[in-house]
Amino acid sequence: MNAPAEPRLLRGALLVLVGIVFSAAAGLVLLGEQQAAGDAGSRADRLRQLQQDGDALLIGMVNQETGVRGYLNTGSTIFLEPYGEGRSQVAAAELRLRRAGVREMAQLDGTLAAADFWQDWAAGRKGAVDARSAPVIDPASSLDGKRRFDAFRASQTRLEAGLGRDVAAALADAANRSRAARVAALIGGIGGAGSLMLLGVLLIGWWTLRPVLRLAQAAAAIAAGKQVTIPPSTRRDEVGALSRALVQWQNVAIERERFFTLALDANVITNPSGGIVDASPATEQITGFTKSELLSRSLADLIHPDDLEAVVASIDDLAHGARVTRFEVRAVCKDGSHRCLSWSAVASPVTGAIYAVGREVTEERATRDALEERAQLLNLAHDAILVRDIAGKDGITYWTAGAEATYGWSADEALGRVSHQLLETQFPRPLPEVEEEVLRTGRWQGELTQSVRDGGRVVIDSRWALRTDAAGRPDSFLEVNRDITERKRLERALEKSTAELVRASQAKSEFLSRMSHELRTPLNAILGFSQLLETDVEDRHRDFLRRIQDAGRHLLDLINDVLDISRVESGTMQVSIEPVSIAGVVDVTSELIKPLAAARGIVVSTQLSGASDQHVLADLQGLKQVLLNVMSNAVKYNREGGHISVSAEPHDGAVCVTIADTGPGIPPRERERLFQAFDRLGAETTDVEGTGLGLMLSRQLLVAMGGSISVESSDRGTSFSIELPAADEQEEHLVGRAFTADDVAPSDRRVVMYVEDNLSYLQLVERLFQQQRHGFTVLPTMQGTLALELAREHCPDLILLDLHLPDISGHEVVRRLRADERTAWIPVVVISADASPDQIKRMLDAGVRAYLAKPLDVDRLLAVLDEVLGVSPATVPER
Hints:
Strand order of the largest sheet: 2-1-5-4-3
Mean pLDDT: 75
Strand content: 15-25%
Radius of gyration: 51 Å
Helix content: 55-70%
Shape: elongated
Low-confidence stretches: 1-13, 564-569, 733-747, 871-879
């Protein structure tokens, strides 16, 4: 019985021995692999610590970058807190990295050097702001800082990638060692005690795989972009290492996402074909597209078609190995507008994905383009334009091509020189006084005498303006100089010629007047005595006397014509003096002006109690024109909702009519220019229409009527006083009829406006209507601009128009009438001495109904009036 058992015992002992051997071998292998796994885990821990320190370095740099950019743009010290925290974080991270990472990663030095390189720039820009105590926006320096920070981010990315590969290798090694240990343990268990080892394996599997599965689920959630909570692990095996690695990776991912989300620049990630796979919120804000809309587009869809070629070339550089590429293009926004972005892009060498950062430079580019355009325009100007600093230490800082042409010095020769020394400038008053006026008022204008390069002297019309810096402090003087040497020479020659012509004209007029008087004396005797002889001579001699008288009268007419020519050449204005009712003419003109005043809420009142029954010696049409001119100015230059008062008082044998307004007033230094032709005292830069002739014509008319005009003004308003000789009681009886406001446009009468600066023609047409065409009121005016205003308010049935007016041409009057829907329908008939075929055709083409030549053919005028005014009333718009 025992014999068969021995072999079984031996075999059992052998199996036990084999099992023990297997177990011992498996134990040795297990111990070795566990030691190797521990070493690999420790290396992974050291590498993860380097990753944490690298992430801390990145976070500190981001905090610094965000803080210093905010401080540079706004100057607010609130941004210095994250900036200071970031510098502390970077310093601590650098210290840890240098202690622990030198033997692990040689490329760590590049990352630290790039960080120090950017921090030097940030400290310098912060120091510039501290020195000026104000934001310092410098596109060139900002671009330099961006390049430095991009270099750091690229180096940090390479460091992170290297550490990631080493961590992955260490973890893989730990995992392999762990698997080998498990195999050894399994073999030992099989050799020692199968069932017990099997149970041990199951327990180990349960203890090991459950946390691994949990970590696998957490890793999948992190990969999906979710944030999960991973309990801290103190285990020193692979599971503990894996748990700590996942926690670290999640923290890094959170910080990277925060950096991606909070960045002020547009961050875009594309696949190798250009399709957008991720975009930052700043990209949404800049382009107007939502993130979902961006993810359905490619980067090319956001680029202006004209700039695509530059983008394609830059991406092609990345494909051919370029580390980074930069391009500035216009981005197409959702609303169709364009914004200019400066892009920096890199490509992943592993996946081919493209990482692009775009900083908006729309305003910078617009400013740059505007400066370039202005510089080109200034160089095209014929005037000499130069800029010099106020302190004088930098001299001339800008010198255009016009300055080179004017003075002969090139820009290279002039820049840095003191202008008044280079040009040997002679000022009308001391230079410090001129500069003080520019600093006080911002501008100066005057005439200078300067030297040119060839030694000649030129007269310069110089205009200076004060330039200021970004903080509003005076910075430099801008000079615009025009060479007027030739103009001054021509002006002197013209003055001399004009004086000679005036003397010659006066001599001729005196000669004609003297000769006409000398000729009249013998003619008086010839005509007088021939009339006396007519009763004493025989019938056969009467025919001879009639011939003598006819010849004498003809000669007298010729002498009268000579006198008329003399008056015309001397500029004497013909007026018809008659007694005119002050109350009547004031009522008429005020009724004409009231519609213009009402449009601006201005009230017109009259106070004539002191002269309600007074008459003055004046030309009726001329006086109406004077009052219309002054009242219309009172409306134009008054304030909204203001007041105009018209009063009249007798004064020392005369009557004074005062027109006062509530406008801003006229400075004393400008009042002497009121009655100069075409001088509007600066009103030509406003939207107030006018020509600057009304007051000049008014004074000429008043002087011709023996009257005068004066002005008083303050900040409460301006008043014009018109004085005319009073008519005595005997002269007042010569007034043919009362002249009241009903003469303007009674409801049962139609209105004809006559625009003519010749008083005799105004009187002729008015009397023609009084005698030949009843039921019409003639509304006279001597200026085209005033006629346009009255036409818009009173809508006359017909406008008679002279072409040569003192302010604007008759052709311009017709053009403006036709351009305004309120007056486009009014028929116009031209009455002019300019009756050339070209002129007539031009006016008829412009839309006038008829063209009558001076001197007037009364029958022809009446026929045209009947034809034009014979329109059915139904076709005339209501007024």
